[in-house]
Sequence to fold (204 residues):
Amino acid sequence: MTLADIERRAAHKPDTLRDLSDALVFGEGPENARLMLIGEAPGEEEDLSGRPFVGRAGQLLDRILASVGMDRGDVYITNLVKRRPPGNRNPRPEEIEASAPLLLDQIRVIGPQVIGTLGNVPTQWFLDTKDGITKLHGTWHTWHGIRLMPLYHPAYLLRNPSRERGGPKWRMWQAMQELAALLEELPERREPLAIDTARQQGLF
Fold:
């Protein structure tokens, strides 16, 4: 299985996703990326371009990565749901359930060592929690052997631009420094990644 195989599957739009855009925003980045960043769903500019995180939030994400010495081209960036919901509403549980197998296969192929979940929707899905991103931002978790850190969505930072100590941008900077430091310390993954999806498939 390759990312190209998964993308061909993703091109088929099941009836469960009938309310979502016809345009597919699959994801982009190297197939051997050590870091995956996962948002909730594409926005308007992503829907038009077919690429994830290309609007103002995406431009801020690029600057956030650069601030800790990372290049976007070294990171695999995607969304839990691959098609834009109408009016940029949050994906519904059944839409997440229909989309999740594609994301899980992306993770299997890429085998990242660290996952950053951007915002409430992917964070709550991965961690099977109702806790919000304000509480979980910058905390470390382990998901199927992968280190996972919930992070503020860049769109939230655009709405909260203060750089004061303790504010969202300051907390994002602290979290990204931790994430980058851990990536430097971790040895290369040598074994194939195994994901038991029983819990995720039973969430809804």
Q: What stands out?
A: Residues 3-187+195-201 form a domain with the Uracil-DNA Glycosylase, subunit E fold (CATH 3.40.470.10). The longest strand covers residues 146-151. The two ends are 27 Å apart (CA to CA). The chain has one domain: 3-187+195-201.
